[in-house]
């Protein structure tokens, strides 16, 4: 008989500041030793559900609770946030903010410090927890020198108290590059090996979580449980599309090929998947079909790098001898792990950083002679976090800002701002205050505020970060309109392989400051060597190709070609 | 990151670095008290020896130290001295107890030997306190500073605020640079081409996105702390406050003697056997000193007396 760890019974919750309940009629039992994925888009209530387990609700975030939640048999409202932290460990989404200590060891010890445990008792426990997550060699390291993945490991070690047997991971993949994301999923799986531990993962990136098996998926939508089933059952249903969750690429590929999902064994795991003979035949036929070759871009160059080297500290170049050429109207993915030099390359294009040697060309002209402001009129840079760009209170003022400081005549300002607002479908909202709109809309505002200067090139830094699939798809659709209808050249700085695959033609890959690849997207993504050097991850198309004994490049190219045709239709 | 801002985040390798935060705090406070207590240049000079040795033993990056020291000497030292000589050229009289004019331009503008001596002493005092502060800053990581404050029985929430502030400084600095870059690309002129006023106004505007994007973090940090039981108990321990080393123990005993010596010095030279003037000066014999209240010489009081 399985022992229940967490039981929700007829549970609803309404935040004090909101008019509608965020969670409705939740009935859910999670058993001891289970590994459960809570899936849902932004605003589906999945994080709220987790906060009801760890006690942030009702003790830190107030509101009205009806029904009951018990954790290890104890009604949460009769416990306290502290009492619950003895059994429930929560790893927050923002592992950087969660890092409150000034070194790894201190952060792991934080909970024990708060219990006023003497130092000599803390030391062995800190060492033990650090070893569990593989951070023993970094005890003295400071947060500024750690990668996102390492910070997350520290966060996990910090909540592994002596009796913590329920672990909640709130969007553990949000801040990690693909390979680190894989490592995180593997680490979580290792922790789940211990049958005493119950693991709850909150995510919207289904495919990445399914890198390791989960027992059960609870799909949340509009504050209700939309499904509670095994991964295989969920993938075979149509619930994912219905609720704005991206299905794994290989599943999409199977649908493109017209396969029946029903008979497939282990559909949730690409490594052990077993196709029916019929499905295999259809896949073979689909992928060996010849697709039209992509047209070569023969337009003139807008941005060029010629043997560019740049360093912050003498002797340690962050960009080394980089050369590439970007043609007008291209869509390019600049990829590589954090610190590989891709952001610095963007800074060099924008003139915020100037090359130590070599030349950066913009419109065929040496950028040396152009000021940052002048480059800004040809190349627009959109930061990852829109909150870091917005300085005015209404949308219209924000969009007009770059023109106002150039002291243009009122008529011109109005005309150009209207054009930019229209291009971003913001015109009807132009008088809204900026802080009332969603994150995705803010992103749109920042793009509009750059577009008013009519740049030829747009650089977008991690456009998919911090967004669910639905708002990501909307943004990409809109960016692609800018590319197709307004002829803008688009550079995505990203480590999102899906994004590169679906929205770009060419990829420039950075590793340790050098350009290690500059080729068609499907060729780069099918190249094992480049993928591992750049800390990227094979898409599941690659594994699919191996199953079918086909060339990964062929499979990826055919997939992209089909997808582009489908989106044109 | 280390030593660029003089703030140390990683504990250094030298014996001074390895002292407990509480010992560092104790020594810092005693030296500060001693420097405040004395105006005798011989004592001040002696007090500088320990900080100098300590700083050298830590093998720091001297560049930022020299920059800081020169900024301090120019602003408070040179500019302050010139202002004093112009406004109140006879200050030395009330502190030292004599007035020997060595150069005179007019009735109101002259230089006395005693005022120069006074300036020298105050300058030495500044340098001594600078060295003491630097000794402490170089040796102490922010967490040791926080645990040192806890040792002084500060409420631990104050200590946490201090260490969290240090924790976020580098993050905020890099975020600020990102925001500034993006604004420059939109055409905000922050280079020397724009006037100082315009640049100040534009820099002020950068703070809006900086603050707005920091607000979100505050909630995450608060949640992270709540979830790990912060603030539930009245006391708290510090991982950074490690067990005392032998050097710690020796220095703590030395600190007791040092504290006693400071107390004795104050009681003896100020109360039991007070020196007639505030400062010892090699040019004036003790018998010749004309004792005078310092307040008589404050320049604006003279205008009221007339």
Strand tally of chain B is 2
Number of domains of chain B: 2
Whole-Å distance between the termini of chain B? 59 Å
Q: Helix/strand-derived class of chain B? A: mainly alpha
Give a structural overview.
The complex is a heterodimer of chains A (569) and B (306). Chain A has 24 helices and 20 strands. In chain A, helix 7 packs parallel to helix 8 (178-193) and helix 23 (540-547) crosses helix 24 (552-568). Chain A has 569 residues and is of the alpha/beta class. The longest helix of chain A has 18 residues, at 469-486. Chain A is 39% helix and 23% strand. In chain A, the strands form four sheets. A six-stranded mixed beta sheet of chain A has the order 6-7-8-3-9-10, sandwiched between helices. The model of chain A has no long low-confidence stretch (mean pLDDT 89). Chain B is mainly alpha-helical and 306 residues long. Chain B folds into two domains: 14-141 and 241-306, no CATH class; 155-239, no CATH class. In chain B, 65% of the residues lie in helices and 2% in strands. Chain B is built from ten helices and two strands. A two-stranded antiparallel sheet of chain B has the order 1-2. Chain B is flat. The termini of chain B are far apart. The model of chain B has no long low-confidence stretch (mean pLDDT 84).
């Amino acid at each position: 008989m399985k022992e229940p760890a967490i039981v929700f019974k007829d549970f609803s919750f309404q935040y004090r500041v909101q008019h509608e309940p965020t969670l409705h009629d939740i009935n859910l039992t999670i058993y001891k030793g289970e590994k459960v994925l809570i899936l849902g888009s932004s605003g589906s209530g999945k994080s709220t559900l987790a906060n009801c387990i760890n006690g942030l609700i009702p003790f830190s975030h107030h509101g009205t609770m009806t029904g009951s939640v018990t954790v290890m048999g104890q009604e949460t409202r009769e416990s306290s946030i502290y009492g619950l932290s003895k059994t429930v460990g929560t790893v927050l989404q923002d592992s950087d903010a969660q890092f409150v200590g000034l070194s790894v060891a201190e952060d792991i010890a934080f909970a024990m410090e708060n219990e006023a445990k003497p130092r000599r008792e803390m030391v062995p426990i800190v060492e033990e927890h650090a070893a569990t997550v593989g951070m023993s060699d970094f005890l003295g390291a400071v947060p500024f020198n750690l990668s996102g993945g390492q910070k997350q490991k520290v966060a996990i070690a910090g909540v592994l108290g002596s009796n913590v047997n329920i672990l909640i991971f709130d969007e553990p993949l949000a801040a990690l590059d693909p390979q680190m994301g894989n490592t995180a999923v593997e680490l979580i799986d290792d922790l789940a090996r211990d049958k005493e531990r119950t693991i709850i993962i909150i995510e919207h990136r289904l495919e990445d979580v399914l890198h390791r098996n989960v027992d059960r998926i609870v799909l949340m939508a509009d504050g209700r449980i939309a499904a509670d089933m095994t991964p295989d059952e969920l993938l075979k249903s149509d619930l994912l599309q219905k609720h704005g969750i991206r299905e794994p690429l290989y599943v999409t590929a199977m649908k493109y090929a017209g396969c029946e999902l029903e008979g497939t064994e282990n559909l949730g795991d690409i490594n052990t998947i077993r196709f029916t003979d019929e499905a295999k035949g259809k896949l073979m036929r689909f992928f060996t079909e010849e697709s039209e070759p992509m047209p070569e871009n023969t337009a003139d160059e807008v941005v060029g790098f010629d043997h560019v080297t740049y360093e912050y500290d003498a002797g340690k170049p962050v960009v080394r001898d980089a050369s590439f050429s970007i043609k007008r109207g291209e869509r390019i993915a600049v990829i590589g792990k954090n610190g590989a030099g891709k952001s610095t390359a963007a800074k060099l294009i924008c003139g915020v950083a100037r090359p130590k040697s070599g030349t950066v060309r913009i419109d065929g002209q040496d950028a040396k002679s152009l000021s940052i402001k002048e480059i800004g009129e040809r190349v627009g840079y959109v930061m990852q976090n829109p909150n870091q760009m917005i300085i005015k209170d209404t949308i219209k003022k924000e969009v007009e800002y770059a023109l106002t400081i150039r002291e243009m005549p009122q008529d011109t300002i109005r005309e150009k701002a209207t054009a930019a607002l229209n291009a971003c479908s913001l015109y009807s909202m132009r008088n809204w205050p900026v802080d009332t709109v969603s994150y995705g809309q803010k992103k749109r505002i920042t793009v509009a505020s750059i577009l008013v200067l009519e740049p030829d090139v747009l650089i977008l830094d991690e456009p998919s970060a911090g967004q669910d699939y639905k708002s990501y798809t909307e943004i990409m659709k809109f960016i692609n309109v800018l590319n197709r209808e307004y002829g803008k050249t688009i550079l995505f700085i990203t480590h999102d392989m899906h994004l590169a695959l679906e929205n770009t033609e060419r990829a420039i890959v950075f590793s340790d400051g050098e350009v290690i690849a500059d080729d068609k997207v499907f060729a780069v993504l099918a190249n094992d060597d480049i993928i591992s050097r750049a800390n990227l991850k094979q898409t599941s198309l690659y594994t699919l190709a191996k199953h079918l004994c086909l060339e990964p490049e062929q499979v990826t190219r055919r997939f992209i070609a089909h997808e582009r045709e489908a989106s044109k239709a | 990151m280390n030593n660029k801002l003089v703030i140390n985040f990683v504990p250094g390798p030298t014996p001074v670095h390895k002292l407990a935060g509480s010992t560092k705090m104790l020594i810092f406070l005693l030296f500060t008290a001693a420097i405040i207590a004395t105006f005798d240049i011989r004592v001040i000079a002696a007090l500088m020896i320990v900080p100098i040795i300590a700083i050298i033993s830590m093998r720091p990056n001297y560049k930022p130290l020299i920059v800081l020291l020169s900024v301090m000497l120019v602003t408070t030292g040179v500019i302050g001295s010139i202002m004093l000589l112009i406004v109140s050229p006879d200050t030395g009289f009330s502190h030292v107890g004599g007035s020997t004019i060595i150069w005179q331009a007019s009735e109101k503008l002259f230089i006395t030997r005693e005022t120069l001596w006074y300036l020298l002493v105050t300058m030495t005092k500044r340098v001594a306190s600078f060295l003491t502060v630097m000794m402490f800053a170089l040796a102490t990581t922010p967490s040791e500073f926080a645990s040192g404050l806890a040792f002084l029985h500060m409420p631990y929430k104050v200590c946490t605020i201090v260490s969290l502030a240090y924790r976020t400084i580098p993050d905020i600095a890099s975020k600020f640079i990102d925001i500034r870059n993006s604004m420059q690309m939109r055409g905000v002129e922050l280079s020397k081409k724009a006037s100082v006023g315009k640049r100040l106004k534009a820099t002020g505007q950068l703070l809006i996105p900086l603050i707005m994007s920091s607000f979100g973090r505050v909630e995450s940090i608060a949640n992270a702390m709540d979830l790990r039981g912060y603030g539930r108990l009245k006391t708290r321990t510090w991982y950074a406050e490690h067990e005392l080393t032998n050097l710690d123990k020796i220095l703590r005993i030395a600190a007791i003697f040092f504290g006693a010596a400071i107390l004795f010095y104050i009681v003896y030279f100020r109360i039991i056997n007070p020196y007639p003037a505030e400062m010892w000066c090699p040019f004036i014999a003790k018998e010749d000193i004309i004792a005078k209240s310092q307040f008589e010489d404050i320049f604006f009081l003279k205008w009221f007396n007339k």
